[in-house]
Amino acid sequence: MPLEIFLPFRGGIYDRGSICGALPPAIITLALVTDTETNRPLIEELMALYSTFQFPEYQPAGMDLPTTVANSTLCHVSLTRWMNSAGFKRKTPERSERCAGVVADVCKYTVKMLNKLADQGAFAASHAPAAIVGDCMTCHQEEAPYAHGKESCIVCHGDPHN
Ligand code: HEC
Ligand code: HEC
Question: Which atom of ligand 1 lies nearest, measured to the CA of 138?
Answer without folding.
Answer: 5
